[in-house]
Every structure is written in C-alpha cells, then in structure tokens.
Design a protein that fits this description.
Number of strands: 14
Helix content: 40-55%
CATH architecture of the largest domain: Orthogonal Bundle
Largest sheet: 8 strands, mixed
Shape: elongated
Strand content: 5-15%
C-alpha cells in the first residue's frame, strides 16, 4: 500500500502540514482493507502539534484533548497530536498528555483495524503517497475478518467501556468476528457499560442497527450487553411460539432476530428507525402469553409492546421524532397484518387512523413485511388508490343526525365506500338509516 485516495479538502489540509510528519489514521485507512465505502470523515495525526495549530488556525472550529476539529469542503477533519491517555476508572474523559512516538499513540487505540497509520510523504491531486505503518497487525486482522483489541482488551474496556458496543457495531457493520480474547473480556466486563451515558449507548446502538440489526441483537445477546442496553430481550428468550402461522415454534427473541434479517433483505440497510420498530414489535408478548386449548396466545401484545417501547426509549434518551412513530407503528402493527389480507381492514385503518397514514403506516408495513418475509407493495398500492378516491358523502348528507354523531357518520360512510366500493346512492341510503353509537368515535 503506497497511496491513499482522500477527499480534496483533506489533501489540502495535509499539504499545509507537510513536510512536518503527518499520518492518516482510522477509518480512512481501514476502508482500504475492509472494502467499506468512502467517508467524508478523515482523521490525521501529526508529530508536531504546535506547528499544526499555527498553520491550520484559519480553518479549525475548536481544539480539545489535543485534537483540532475542522469542517472544510463538506469534510469533517480531525487533526491530533501524538497522545497518551490516562483514565481514572470513573470518568470516560481522559487525562491527555503528549506522546513521544507513534508507538505510544497507537497503543491507546481501541481495535487493531483502527490502529493502522498511513505516513504521508507527498500529496498530489486527491491522493497521498507514502507507506503503511501497522504496529498491531490490523491489516492481517482485517484480512481474517477479526475485531481485536489493541493490547490488553480488559485495559481497553476499562479506559472506555463504550468500546464493547463499538466492537459489536464493527462486527455487525463489517460482518467480522470478535476475536476470542476480546469477546471473553466483553462478556466478563459487560457490566462496565453502565458507566457510559445513555446518550452514548443510544448513538452507538443506532449506528449498529443501521448496518446489520439482526447481527447486532445476536451479539448483544452473546456478550451479555443486552442486560444493560436492551433488557426487554431477556423475557423474549424465555417464551416460545406454538408453531402456527409464520413463527415456526421459535422463541420470541429468535423470531425477532429472524424478522430483522428479513427486514434487511427486503429493504436493505441504513434505516435504524425501521430496525427499532421491528426490534420492539413483539417485546410485549412475554407479558401477555397465555395457553388456551393447547395454543399459545398473545392477545393485546401490540399495545403492551408499545408501552415497553415508550419506557425503554425514555431510558435511552431517544428523541421524540424517532420514538414517536416507532411506538405508534408497534401499537398498530397487528392491524397492518390484517391489511395484508383484507380490504376491509385497510379501509378501517385509513378512515379511523387518518393521522397515522404517513411515516407510521410505512413503519407498521415494514414490521408486517419483516414478520411475513415478503413485501406488501400491493397494500401500498391499495392505500394510494383508496386515498385518491373522491369522497361521496359530505356534511350536508348527515345533517339529520345529532351534531356529535356527524363526524362518526362521515367516517362510517367513507369506510363503506372504500371497503365495499359502495356508490353514492347506496351510501346516502345507508346514512339515512344510521343509528349513531351511544358515544361517537
């Protein structure tokens, strides 16, 4: 490896730093060996940090922990000096001191695949030329598909327990295996994740779910991190379906993992919100499981799942813009199952849950698709067709009813129109005979 392609703005920054020693590190180097797509984030390390501060002062936004942070030409660039870090075992914020060598700087990094450096000798166009510096065998681990901690994995975890979730994320993202010593350290130290803020756990989990949600959940379970990140998974592993329908007799947890893999197969990667909805859609089943005549039932599980989703989201500090649609979709997903087979069910949903038609309906459809293992584009097409159908009953047609029943009557007539294809005269006749419920819907 004697050259590396980078965003033009990163190459420009490197030109400002040369001929002082400068290295590219982290994801920009790792991607050469893992085949990941290019990124607009570039991490640089310099031997002379004071020189870097002088030449880059017109560009950088802030400096902290011996890191200059810049945004230039659509690229986020971090420029750090060689550093040593010390942790007190309580706070994740390190005490940072200058390091005397690249060896010291590399020893503080999390995984070998992130501890590879590219020493730049020349920058031309959008490429830099030089040599790879790989002190911990990161290239070989990338070739073998391994996530291995740099040095002692226990020490790396104590420094920052979030590294355990980062191991899960990289293993899921790259379809790699967590190396044995690193995996055993995570299993032993899983409880240390409680020292990490919920916000940092949340952000790392969402990144992981966006890449490979099924594998993420498998690794959370294998490592024991689920107890601290997604405790609702525990009861799901203890309850088994009875084999009817699309569940095949597996546990609720295994069904959920399979559904997450099916979601990815049907819709691809990159949608952590849909992954969250599928992850949580059956979380309430253990609480409502009952045996009835040799069959296991889960009546009202969608509503209970939505309650669990709401509580967990609050604990994880998920923004309302994310969890709001997820909770509603989880609560409605059983109705969307019915919509896959019934025009009447679809009409009822569109009429009585009009406010949920957009993102919520799409999320609930994705839950149903992940459950069933097939796309429901016919349902989407039917929804578009129904929504484009002009209304045949207006306010004037229901004026004979009490004021508080007129809204109900308009919706009931619309449901008849969409579900049965009733015409104007048939609907007007039906409306004249409507007997409103005691309490209008």
């Amino acid at each position: 490896m004697d050259s590396l392609e980078l965003p033009p703005s990163a190459v420009y920054v490197i030109r400002q730093l040369l001929p002082s020693p400068v290295y590219v590190v982290g994801g920009a180097v790792r991607r050469v060996f893992t085949g990941e797509p290019p990124s607009a984030d570039v991490d640089l390390v310099v031997q002379d940090f004071e020189h870097a501060k002088r030449v880059l002062r017109p560009f950088f936004e802030k400096e902290e922990y011996m890191v200059i942070k810049m945004r230039l030409g659509g690229c986020e660039i971090d420029v750090a000096g060689f550093r040593r870090e010390a942790y007190d075992g309580v706070s994740r914020k390190p005490v940072v001191r200058p390091a005397g060598s690249i060896e010291e700087d590399a020893a503080r990094r999390d995984f070998t695949i992130n501890a590879m450096y590219f020493e730049v000798k020349e920058a031309v166009g959008n490429r830099v030329y030089g040599r790879l510096v790989d002190l911990f065998g990161g290239a070989e681990d990338a070739r073998r598909g391994l996530i291995r901690a740099v040095g002692d994995p226990v020490a790396r975890i104590i420094e920052d327990p979030l590294r355990m979730l980062r191991a899960v994320r990289f293993a899921s993202q790259l379809s790699f295996t967590i190396e044995e010593r690193t995996l055993e350290a995570i299993k032993t130290m899983a409880g240390e994740i409680a020292r990490v803020s919920k916000e940092r756990m949340r952000d790392e989990l969402l990144k992981s779910l966006s890449h490979n949600a099924g594998r993420t959940v498998e690794l959370l379970w294998e490592t024991g991190l689920w107890r601290y990140v997604a405790p609702f998974l525990g009861p799901m592993a203890q309850v088994r379906h009875d084999g009817r329908g699309h569940h095949y007799g597996e546990t609720v947890l295994q069904h959920t993992v399979d559904a997450l893999y099916r979601l990815q197969k049907l819709h691809g990667k990159g949608d952590p919100v849909a992954a969250l909805a599928v992850l949580l859609h059956d979380a309430g089943k253990p609480a409502v499981a009952r045996e009835d005549g040799g069959k296991i039932t889960f009546h009202s599980h969608a509503e209970v799942s939505a309650e669990i989703a709401e509580r967990w989201a609050g604990e994880m500090r998920l923004p309302r813009s994310v969890i709001g649609p997820v909770v509603k979709a989880v609560a409605l997903h059983e109705r969307l199952h019915q919509m896959a087979y019934s025009r009447t069910a679809l009409a009822k949903f569109l009429v009585w849950h009009a406010e949920e038609r957009g993102d919520v309906a799409e999320l609930a459809l994705k839950i149903a698709e992940a459950d069933l293992g097939r796309r429901l584009d016919d349902v989407r097409a039917a929804m578009r067709e129904m929504l484009s159908t002009p209304k045949l009953i207006r306010g004037a047609d229901v004026m004979h009813l009490p004021p508080d029943a007129r809204g109900w009557a308009l919706k009931k007539a619309r449901e008849m129109q969409l579900a049965k294809g009733a015409g104007a005269e048939e609907l007007k006749k039906a409306v004249r005979g409507f007997v409103p419920p005691k309490q209008s819907v």
